[in-house]
Design goal:
The protein contains six helices and eight strands. By secondary structure, the chain is an alpha/beta fold.
Length: 211
């Protein structure tokens, strides 16, 4: 259905280099500890509500970076996984050779899609839906990164407005009408907007054309 570009593998190789060697920032500094922050922590309260609503038991952290959400702790010292109510979270991170993807109740994809080459966004979104039995939860950054790729380009290679991402997700959700999706967009690191939880089946079952 969707085909990956050669840029997909090229970017994975860049991120493997960055995970091993570190990266340069736009301000000229160098960072050795790469992508180890647990980005879903910022949205723990909302994720908890989604997990409770769907009675979810397990999750897939799609693009987990260097963090393991089974072990990370919130600022109050409580384990993230215990707070949100999941029993197990599988990590998928091809840049760190975590290549196993399992189908789970909830798929978390936080600060990943803006790193995906534009041609490959539909493929990745479809892959997210295919690995969820209940809901996918996405956060996407809509601003330039502080990090640079090894070739000197900004690490956020697909920077688009929130409405663009909303449209992409709605289009791909047509292929998976029974799977719910939730979207957060961030126009700066500490400024996010939540678009709620939706599924295409509800629109298809509606008697109204205008949605």
């Amino acid at each position: 259905m969707f085909q990956l570009s050669q840029q997909y593998d090229e970017l994975i190789n860049y991120y493997k280099q960055m995970a091993k060697n570190g990266y340069s920032r736009v301000d000229g500094t160098f960072v050795k500890k790469v992508y180890s922050d647990a980005e879903p922590h910022k949205f723990a309260e909302q994720i908890k509500k989604i997990v409770e609503y769907f009675d979810a038991k397990n999750g897939l952290d799609y693009g987990s970076g260097g963090s393991d959400l089974n072990e990370t702790k919130l600022t109050n010292g409580v384990k993230f996984i215990d707070y949100i109510g999941l029993q197990k979270i599988q990590s998928f991170e091809p840049a760190r050779n975590k290549k196993k993807k399992v189908k789970c109740d909830i798929v978390l994809c936080f600060d990943v899609l803006e790193h995906v080459f534009i041609n490959d966004v539909p493929w990745v979104l479809n892959d997210l839906f295919e690995h969820a039995t209940k809901c996918i939860v996405i956060n996407v950054a809509c601003y330039n990164a502080a990090a640079l790729l090894p070739n000197g380009e900004n690490a956020h290679i697909t920077v688009r407005p929130p409405s663009w991402w909303l449209g992409q997700i709605e289009c791909i959700s047509c292929l998976h009408p029974d799977i719910y999706w939730a979207l957060f967009t961030s126009e700066s690191y500490n400024n996010s907007k939540f678009y709620g939880v939706h599924r295409m089946k509800d629109k298809l079952d509606s008697k109204k054309f205008y949605q």
